[in-house]
């Protein structure tokens, strides 16, 4: 057994060396990043509910007293994004990938936190330039309009003959299957940390525990006719608000016991608190028909940047919900990120697509990875450099194989993106875009 283990290690090292040797001939040509915004305050719609989830003597962080409005990017979040931009500048320079002002594009969802994230990243990437950020404005020039390119809105206007009734029927079926297949988060630790049985909400509802039921709503429009996102009612939605608030306090507050409402939690227990939010997002945005539908406009933008000769670097700043849907639409293989309490879509993480050319053969390759801060790097505001980089996870996708150098062949990867775009046609017919064979 010992000899077999030694041989296995030797083979793994040999393969690793072979891949690194093959990658040494590659020249970076183009990069597209789809980024989640950096650390923010809890959403405005969450702030008023948090106090009802604990006894009155336990207080959540008062963000407003620190000059931070609900939903807005925090100064810490902005600084972390500048660290990211500075790191990518060093990384690009090490690859001979030099950017001029005209080489780059920055776009963002029409929210303060996403626009500010893009600005902070741009400041780190190109500190001597004033890079404009594209985002939608209302008639008064203010940000805020719903933008289907960046928000996971139901999409029935990109194709004629969209069958909304059949779509909703298929979506309800897929969501029900997803609920059955996913491991439900335990609310025990969350309730204990909140002292939930003593909370105002528990007393008002006469129910000392969160219910495990999941109530997903798939309404396409609001009362004014604007497209909506998938939404949820019930106790999972309430538990998600608490989970989100704990995650944000974990990163913002120096005293972890205070951040956990005077509970002494291990790292694993913090991961367990964050798991509720991951589960919530999976239920709402990763059923195949929903994922392909709501991420379609973003994927169109990504594809446009990849095939265009106009920009060498493109940065789209959006939300965890959109990236969760996008990765699901691309049939990303299951993953769980290390060294972070958020295992799926951590704050500020980046979905990075790179285009490479083999200088010896002229062949092109694509890589796809997630770049994110470890919990320690974010909590302790550790700047990155090439010796101390952020965390990295190389993605794999169902239906496409990597080349021997560890990257995807250009034609294979682009075909995979095109197939995902074409799968939108199936959602218009109310069909599962990835039927089981």
Summary of the model, kept short:
The chain is of the alpha+beta class and 437 residues long.
What would you say this structure looks like, in words?
With 437 residues, this protein is of the alpha+beta class. It has a single domain, classed as Rossmann fold (3-Layer(aba) Sandwich). Helices cover 43% and strands 12% of the residues. It is built from 16 helices and 9 strands. The chain has helices spanning 2-23, 44-50, 75-94, 112-125, 164-181, 188-194, 200-205, 235-252, 256-259, 267-285, 288-294, 296-307, 320-329, 375-379, 410-422, 424-428; strands at residues 26-36, 104-108, 215-217, 231-233, 313-318, 350-358, 364-372, 391-394, 408-409. The strands form 2 sheets. Strands 1, 2, 5, 6, 7, 8 and 9 form a 7-stranded mixed β-sheet that branches. A two-stranded antiparallel ribbon has the order 3-4. The longest helix has 22 residues, at 2-23.
What layout of secondary structure does this protein have?
Blueprint: H1 2-23, E1 26-36, H2 44-50, H3 75-94, E2 104-108, H4 112-125, H5 164-181, H6 188-194, H7 200-205, E3 215-217, E4 231-233, H8 235-252, H9 256-259, H10 267-285, H11 288-294, H12 296-307, E5 313-318, H13 320-329, E6 350-358, E7 364-372, H14 375-379, E8 391-394, E9 408-409, H15 410-422, H16 424-428
Parallel strand pairs: 1-5, 2-5
Antiparallel strand pairs: 1-6, 3-4, 6-7, 7-8, 7-9
Helix pairs in contact: 3-4, 8-10, 10-13, 11-13, 12-15
